[in-house]
Amino acid sequence: MRQSHIKELNPFLRSFLYIVGGEIAIYVGMELLKSKSEDITDEDITENIKESIEGTDIDFEPDDSEILKLNTVRKTLYKLYSEKLAQFRRIRDKSTGWFIYYWWHEFDLLEEILLEKKKLIDGKLRDRLQFEQNNYFFICEKCQESNKKYNFDEAFELNFRCPDCGDPLEAQDNQTIIEFLKNKIALIQNIKISVD
Question: Are residues 117 and 68 in the same domain?
């Protein structure tokens, strides 16, 4: 891998790109960054990456004769688009009738995107914590490996009997789960996000 290009990426951005689309997303991100204010086509990105990895052992298509396909780059660009890290405009080529997609990065929105993700995760953890705190759960000790747990209303409907084996349903202590969720919420709150 050409580390000189990769080092130019902000560590948060590099990590987020990798999470979104793996190693190829880092290379695509670098090409978007290198294009500066000019839009770049997915075909140009593919060719530029192929040139940059030529002579290395990097192969994004290990089961194919090509080292990188246009389709792989397009999928990666759409992943970046879905995470609000890239935008595009399309123009119909008058001679072929095909659409040409011009791409640019939105990496300056990274901090906002990460804060939004942090808020989303915090909200989901809080919802789950509230659910765990407001419900009593029952499990079948015999069928415990199935990981089925029933809230009070479900257990009541089943006459507190396991629908699979008929054994009694036992109350489950969910304090461990509650403590785990509280710790995760505290951890999320303490994460400081700054991409500067």
Answer: no
The residue ranges of DSSP E strands in 69-169, in sequence order, are: 86-92, 99-105, 137-139, 150-151
For the whole model, what pTM was predicted? 0.70
Structural domain contains residue 38: yes
Are residues 186 and 165 both part of a single domain? yes
Question: What angle separates helix 23-34 from helix 70-82, to the nearest 10 degrees?
Answer: 80
User: Is there a contact between 7 and 31 (Cβ–Cβ < 8 Å)?
Assistant: no
With the CA atoms of 31, 34, 35 and 37 taken in that order, what torsion angle do they form, in degrees rounded to the nearest 10?
130
Question: What DSSP letter does each residue of 74-97 carry, written as one string?
Answer: HHHHHHHHHTTSEEEEEEE-TTT-
For residue 170, how far is the Cα from the chain centroid? Answer: 37
Q: What is the pLDDT along the chain (196 residues), one digit of tens a residue?
A: 334 444 467 888 888 999 999 999 999 999 999 887 678 999 999 999 999 888 888 888 888 888 899 999 999 999 999 999 999 999 998 999 999 999 999 988 888 988 998 999 999 999 999 999 998 899 988 886 667 889 999 999 999 999 888 889 999 888 999 999 999 999 988 888 776 6
Domain region containing 77: 3-105
For the chain, the distance separating the N- and C-terminal CA atoms, rounded to the nearest angstrom, is: 25
